[in-house]
Amino acid sequence: MHDQWKAGLEDVIAARSAVCAIDGAAGRLFYRGYEIGELAGAVPFEDVAALLWTGERPDAAQAADFRARLVAARGLPAPIEALLRSLPRDCHPLDALRTAISLDAALDPDVADSGALANLRKSFRLMVRVPEVVAAWHRIRSGRAPAAAVSSGSHAAYVMHLLEGVAPSEDVARVMDVVLTLHADHEFNASTFVARVAVATLADLHAAVVAAIATLKGPRHGGANEDVLRMLQEIGDPAKAEAFIEARLGARGALSKAERANPKARVPGFGHRVYRVDDARARVLRGMAKSMAEATGRARLFEVAERVYDAMKARTDLPVNVDFFSAVVYDALGIPADLCTSIFAIGRVAGWCAHAMEQYADNRLIRPRAEYIGVAPRRLAAAVA
Ligand SMILES: CC(C)(COP(=O)(O)OP(=O)(O)OC[C@H]1O[C@@H](n2cnc3c(N)ncnc32)[C@H](O)[C@@H]1OP(=O)(O)O)[C@@H](O)C(=O)NCCC(=O)NCCS
Question: How many other C-beta atoms lie within 10 A of the C-beta of residue 245?
């Protein structure tokens, strides 16, 4: 073995990909060459998904076809609704989603076919099934029936309709559209990498997406936006933000490295493996969080977030990440803390499918090595004697 081991594979090039590029030093992100700040809000999420999957922005006919295929996939299968109804009410939304997508595999007519066309068909279905499950579980656990599928409206409007049971305003649909685009892909983040590892064994697309959902849950990854919203709610008052951050960061001085690694000893929404400065997504979300919070009478939570941001910037050089201000946007959309990571999944499934299809198209088993640091070879006989 030649290469030096890197903890957490930091900066290791694990594969080649044409889907997404990150410039960590400059805080820039590109989908298929287009900068995220240019795409978000200007190009509808459906076209962004088409771009990620095919490599090019769709022309008008292709865009209409893409939307029609998404709409055709709408409608939660009855066995999935029955499964959700059987879950304990306190089941975490991401656990419900992971479980339901496993069942969706069993119901999918193409589950055993990993050919390119079958994978495309399954990708459309997964794009729709993920928000349908997320919303259905949220409604069921709060004593409401899942909203019936509708055949009109954009994908983002459908997501809000499923959650609320009524068509959203244009403004709300536009905010959700931008949120989905901002979360759609992010190179070799943990959940996407896991999806590619699963695909590389030639496991099917549903298996890869289930593995990705499982990985997204952790507080080092998508789970952080749930923690952000809880933290902001706990702080509650902008005047208390400074002292909260001071106390949390100050306490770290007395902790061991292992104790400092505990998510509860960190400030969620800050720090990133690749970015050294605030990234473009966070900048877009910060602006949206402000206007949304003001429009919905939740400006206080945004103010708390701003004071936390200032306190972190005054004390650390950690960049703010996508999970921080997205939590404020989710709150303004009426999304509770434990549902935040599931909304992330509704956007990211586009990227999981894009990477899975890229991996299938040019595949080699992903099977790295470990540097062995255990006990040197020894004899059982000698030990027994
Ligand atoms: C994202 C994250 C997992 C990246 O981790 P990483 O590249 O492995 O970096 P490390 O965990 O090695 O952290 C490097 C140092 O910065 C500190 N640090 C990183 N993020 C921090 C945070 N949010 N709050 C306080 N300290 C932080 C670490 O404690 C560590 O210092 P230490 O060794 O003295 O304890 C990490 O920044 C983090 O846990 N952030 C909070 C959770 C979060 O927002 N996740 C969403 C990511 S999009």
Answer: 23
